[in-house]
Design goal:
Belongs to the purine/pyrimidine phosphoribosyltransferase family. It is an enzyme of class 2 (transferase). With about 200 residues, the chain is of the alpha/beta class. About 25% of the residues lie in helices and about 25% in strands. The protein has one domain (about 25-170): Rossmann fold. The protein is built from four helices and eight strands. The strands form two sheets. Strands 4-3-2-5-6-7 form a six-stranded mixed beta sheet, with helices on both faces. A two-stranded antiparallel sheet has the order 1-8. The two termini are about 25 Å apart. Bound molecules: 1-O-pyrophosphono-5-O-phosphono-alpha-D-ribofuranose, hypoxanthine (HPA) and magnesium ion (MG).
Length: about 200
């Protein structure tokens, strides 16, 4: 693809052609991450250490940018990763959360902040919070970049939220459809034709 301006309003990236509409731009994401990091750094100013738990794969971009923003705001953190999956190739949750990668270390007594890309039905987070509670963390809070308030099926406590968005399937900035589009720098909606390609 040559030079030009794509759906993101900036230099075209490879998957722009499949995007119908941008829901959250990369500039909005950066500004929001900075704002969330400032707030979290202030709220956790009095604790010795903070353990960020990234929920792979979707939250990988958010984790990387959020951790660095916390550093800029004077809050050092430790990073831990879990991989869970409930969507697979679908656009709706299977309701069954599978652990693909567990935590590498004990979180007992730690101040844990779960870093999630999206709260949709809430089923993943609901399951994860129960799982982490059983591992005796001192505190467990959640930061989620986006949430779909109209899609929530279970009420989960999310302390920090970037954006509330409409109830439509989105991709980009870590979010995938059948493992694609995670690398897009913004969050957007796919053209309907993409789903009928099979
Ligand atoms: O609120 P929910 O309806 O449970 O949906 C949110 C979860 O679903 C997605 O993960 P997915 O299962 O697609 O795995 P992935 O992160 O590897 O894409 C997303 O990254 C969240 O973890
Ligand atoms: O809208 C979404 N897009 C991608 N992955 C997701 N996982 C839950 N909701 C979504
Ligand atoms: Mg997914």
């Amino acid at each position: 693809m040559g030079e030009g301006t794509g759906a993101s309003g900036r230099t075209v990236v490879a998957d722009d052609a499949d995007i119908e509409r941008v829901v959250v731009s990369d500039e909005e994401i950066s500004a929001k991450i900075d704002e969330l990091a400032r707030q979290v750094a202030a709220d956790y100013a009095d604790v010795d250490s903070v353990l960020l738990v990234c929920v792979l794969k979707g939250a990988v971009m958010f984790m990387a940018d959020f951790a660095r923003a916390l550093g800029r705001h004077g809050r050092p953190v430790e990073l831990e990763f879990m991989a869970v999956s409930s969507y697979g190739q679908r656009t709706t949750s299977s309701g069954v959360v599978r652990i693909l990668k567990d935590l590498d270390r004990d979180i007992a007594g730690r101040h844990v902040l779960v870093v999630e890309d999206i709260v949709d039905s809430g089923l993943t987070l609901n399951w994860l919070l129960k799982y982490l509670a059983s591992r005796s963390a001192a505190t467990v809070e959640v930061v989620a970049l986006v949430r779909k308030p109209e899609a929530v099926k279970v009420d989960v406590k999310v302390r920090y939220i970037g954006f509330d968005i409409a109830n439509e399937f989105v991709v980009g900035y870590g979010l995938d459809y059948a493992e694609r589009y995670r690398e897009l720098p913004y969050i957007g909606v796919l053209r309907p034709a993409v789903y009928s390609r099979g």
